[in-house]
Design goal:
The chain has 307 residues and is an alpha+beta fold. It has seven helices and 16 strands. The structure holds coenzyme A. The site of coenzyme A (COA) has 16 residues, from helix 1, strand 5 and helix 3.
Length: 307
């Protein structure tokens, strides 16, 4: 696609270094360049065709990464594109480059049968390309002072291949009824990667008590379990002040005690989605507006947990 004096194309293997530079200069830090590299390596859905690159002559001037993921929407599994990072070099902004890359990705996604694209981003930028505030960042807040002391000792283990079947099953139990939650599969890279704190907590007789993901500044991105008693022991051991879980999940329904925690589901202006198939979001949005459905929340693909 040619537009003005720039062109928009899919990524090629030899573009990787140039994309590091664009993401680093555009965001003034390295974390988005690392994110892109980690998505390439750890997300099974990654496909270079949906990694959209803008060229000005022989130079890369912008990048939008669309990552194919399956998400839950109204208790169904839907093919979606997770959008981000979105970046244009500072000196190339306000020439329509960002918009041209977004439209290129949407057209490709529409053609390939994806139903929605979703992102967390600047609320004043994306609506012109069809995005609307759609979901939120619901969470569970824990009053750690009111948690009891752990009643037994648990040991953290690294995630191992033998854990995967249990993880996929527990993930489905936690997230199946949460809109915009990504479905996780059996590839190891969906559960652990260097730099993230992904643990399987075990009892002294080897039983799995829970999988926990990340614990920076007291926040656990995820906690998956199948026994409410053991899940409470994990909570009393890790003592997070916040859990990235949703009121519709297994944890909120079977483990949460109102004496020490509150589950909320809010809608946020920054949490936006756009229809690639006409009407794809309509039943969900109508249900949220009527109050018969709580706003969903994504459980980001693993590399996003690092940012
Ligand atoms: C956001 C960004 C990708 C926009 O790229 P761009 O190529 O300049 O965007 P476009 O030229 O397609 O913008 C089209 C319109 O969007 C609006 N717009 C552009 N940047 C905007 C911004 N940062 N916030 C709000 N609106 C913006 C303008 O109205 C613009 O039209 P105009 O130039 O005729 O006024 C770019 O500013 C960038 O890389 N920022 C730093 C990284 C970043 O924050 N990424 C987004 C994270 S969610």
């Amino acid at each position: 696609m040619a537009e003005g004096s720039y062109r928009v194309l899919s990524e090629r293997p030899e573009d990787e270094d140039a994309l590091d530079i664009v993401n680093c200069r555009g965001f003034r830090r390295m974390s988005e360049a690392h994110l892109v590299r980690n998505i390439r390596e750890y997300c099974p859905g990654f496909d270079r065709r949906y990694s959209v690159v803008a060229w000005g002559g022989d130079d890369v001037i912008g990048h939008v990464l669309f990552t194919p993921v399956d998400i839950r929407l109204m208790r169904e599994t839907v093919r979606a594109l997770l959008v981000g990072p979105v970046v244009v070099l500072p000196e190339q902004r306000r020439r329509g480059v960002g918009g041209a890359m977004l439209r290129f990705g949407h057209d490709l996604g529409r053609h390939d049968g994806f139903e929605v694209a979703f992102l967390a981003g600047i609320p004043s930028y994306y609506p012109q390309f069809g995005y609307k505030a759609c979901y939120g960042f619901g969470k569970i807040t824990i009053d750690t002072a009111s948690l009891p002391a752990p009643t037994r000792e648990l040991e953290p283990w690294p995630v191992q291949p033998a854990d995967i079947e249990w993880l996929v099953d527990r993930h489905a139990a936690e997230w199946s009824d949460v809109d915009f939650a990504c479905v996780r599969g059996a590839s190891m890279g969906e559960w652990t990667m260097p730099g993230v704190e992904a643990l399987v907590w075990r009892t002294s007789d080897g039983r799995r008590a829970a999988y926990t993901l990340g614990a920076t500044e007291g926040k656990l991105e995820m906690l998956l379990a199948d026994d409410p008693v053991l899940a409470r022991v994990v909570l009393a051991t890790v003592r997070p002040s916040e859990l990235g879980l949703h009121p519709n999940g297994w944890f909120a329904r079977h483990v949460l005690d109102e004496a020490w925690g509150v589950a909320r589901a809010d809608r946020s202006d920054a949490a936006m989605a756009c229809e690639l198939r006409e009407g794809a979001l309509q039943p969900y949005l109508a249900a949220v507006d009527e109050g018969t459905r709580l706003p969903g929340r994504p459980n980001w693909v693993l590399p996003f947990v690092l940012c």
